[in-house]
Amino acid sequence: MRALQISAYGNPSEVLRIAEIPETGAPGAGEVLIEIELAPLNKHDLLFMRGYFGGPVVPTVVGNEGYGHVAAVGPNVKNVKVGDRVLAPNLSLTWRERLLAPAKALFPLPGGDRLQLAQLASNPPTAALILSEYTDLKPGDWIVQNGANSGVGRSLIAIAKKRGFRTINLVRRRELIDEIKQAGGDIVLEDDPASVAEAAQAVGKGAVRLAVDSVGGSATATLIQLLSDRGVLDREPGFRRPSPAIQTRRISSAAGRTTTLLPSPHRPDPSREAPSSDRTVCRPDEQPIALPVNQGRCRVERSNSPPQYFFTASTKI
């Protein structure tokens, strides 16, 4: 069967190749054969190909996420059946036509737009957890984020709107402003210190409870200026460090406000109180994410800019 694999860790444009690899064979007990239909391309995939996370011996197939249908099931599989649409387990090297997966990691997806459903393994759950796990947001509260055109940023806009939150969205290219407005952003501005006054005027007496930083550096200071007192600054991992002046866990600004700094949206601060049971700590098949997507009430708009964010096993490999 065909697959995309790397011959060495390095620049993806240089090491990624189409290859013929052996067929997987029939599924064993507790296993499922998945025919991959779509595989999202995310920053994680590019970092994996560069060797940032270690990884298997090369040459190796790559791909973190995948969407497809169950083509065959092994003995003792009861939770999915042939024909069910499923998400491949994360980190299962999905850029191939078929793969075997443990059935216990799978669940049948609802019907709906497969381009939307294919995103459910990573960006929408990350955005949903950012909105649930770090501060108690209430309808009408504001969230400010930079890198708003990213996959997580677009997901955050869609999920925040469904939950009744409002978003201030900062982008580093002016031509993205209209695109992010069309994706549902309430306020969309160029990521520049000069935008702080404009955003603050638009928010008025509203409360900016959460800031999401996926850029770092001087851009972090812009987010802090927009946070309300006792607001939370949430940092994406893997980006440039904030300036040394804002390395502390709690920050007091010149205006007398206090900001809580969290290190990563994927690893909640262990010193904080554990999340209550009604918060969205869930698999993406549960109603807070998958059902709204299925019903068309929560749509994540994809980028209009290259590269394409999906490979299709049937036509692109």
What does this structure look like?
The protein folds into two domains: 2-121 and 302-312, Alpha-Beta Complex (Quinone Oxidoreductase, Chain A, domain 1); 123-262, Rossmann fold, CATH 3.40.50. It is built from nine helices and 15 strands. The chain has helices at 12-15, 43-49, 114-117, 123-133, 151-163, 177-182, 195-203, 218-226, 290-294; strands at residues 2-6, 16-20, 31-40, 60-61, 67-73, 85-87, 98-102, 142-146, 166-171, 187-190, 208-213, 231-235, 250-252, 258-262, 310-312. The protein has a seven-stranded mixed β-sheet with strand order 10-9-8-11-12-14-13, with helices on both faces. A hairpin with a 5-residue loop joins strand 13 and strand 14 (258-262). It is elongated and about 60 Å long.
